Amino acid sequence: MTNFKSDFLHTLQTRGYIKQTTHEAELDAYCASGVPMGYIGFDATAESLHVGSLVQIMLLRRLQQAGGKPVVLMGGGTTKVGDPTDKAASRPILSEAEIEKNIAGIKKVFSTFLTFGDGPTDAIMVNNAEWLDKIGYIEFLRDIGKLFTINTMVKQDTVARRLKNEQPYTFLEFNYTLLQAYDFLELSRRYNCMIQLGGSDQWGNIVAGADLIHKADGKTGFGITSHLITTASGGKMGKTADGAVWLNAEMRTPYEYWQFWRNTEDADVGRFLKLFTDLPLDEITRLEALEGAQINDAKIALADAATTMLHGAEAAEAAKASAAKVFEEGGTGGALPTFDLAKSEVEAGMLAAAGFTLAGLTKSNGDARRQTKAGATKINGEAMSDENRVLALSDFDQDGFATLSVGKKRHARLKLVD
Q1: Which of 210, 268, 345, 413 has the fewest Cβ atoms within 10 angstroms?
Q2: Given the DSSP bridges, would you call strands 69-75 and 37-43 parallel, antiparallel or unpaired?
Q3: 3-state secondary structure labels for all residues of 106-122
Q4: pTM of the entire structure?
Q5: Which domains does the chain have, with CATH numbers?
Q6: pLDDT of 88 above 60
Q7: How far apart are CA 56 and CA 199, in angstroms?
Q8: CA distance 96 to 77
Q9: What's the sign of the alpha-carbon dihedral 398, 401, 404, 410?
Q10: CA–CA separation, 410 vs 149, rounded Å?
Q11: SS3 of residue 18 by DSSP
């Protein structure tokens, strides 16, 4: 294990982030002197980032905590191409309006993890459309394209795999590496930002950027990659039975977010506490040593800390209180995801299966029926036995709420509206 002198790299190492670095000794010296500056790019492919992007956000948070200056790079330009990394097929091409809408949604989350402003270590947010939209094609080929070789580019994992499998790999996608490398060059010139961070699947693109800085300007750019996070059982981080764990509250409620962390596998608790919370390492060591039923205390600590960081302490407390009511007291839990249902639909004889689908607990009415046959569905804590059961006004309490459950961990409420 390297004995890093800089607080930033020491923290990344002891908390388990680092997969690869470039120029290790020089990077450590850069991080230990002055105010190191690093960036990560986020393409705007959806209206929110999800938990799969959280390691990258935490890397920027760790940089700021260590006295560095984070740069959040919005991919207004690169999203028009689409990152082909680790993809078996081309990404869909988004319109400029869709990209702008997605950027507006993505921006919301960063202020909860980073401090933005004009201070020396305050984070800044920039959009690579500022320079990519203005670039001239001939100029780019002449000044940038000449510094790349096809020989090197075809060796990148994504390119090599697509070619080997005879899958289409468009010239548009082939240019993505050049554009990401050019981002690094532009940020080094505009802000003296000399570190690019990312997941290990970005290693080839990051190295390409560092090489470009050296060839074009004779400077040393640095790269740091983190491990790609999978669960102990081999699942993809942030993927659940009902879809991605989005970071924006309107797409995944604080309660659902809290529950995601509360349901962490036992073997992942210590690792996730190090990666996704600010709890001190000695406290994490104590928590991950818990055994048996006590491991649930560690999972609750993880859920509390992660939810507080994203949604605030009040939302985390409300989520925990709702979980206690649902699981321990059989109550409804006010922080459960709630969906409006017209009273007239119930009076017309709406199927309970349709209620489960409306609440996002099942993918379709047929799925709801299958879950009922398997004994997994409940209304207000009472198991459903009839897959063709209809909802009744008596299912709703005096405030107009009914609690639906699928299995032990997935719950939602329906609220009657006129």
Answers
A1: 345
A2: parallel
A3: HHCCHHHCCCECCCCCC
A4: 0.80
A5: 7-226 (3.40.50.620), 253-329 (1.10.240.10), 338-417 (3.10.290.10)
A6: no
A7: 7
A8: 9
A9: negative
A10: 51
A11: strand
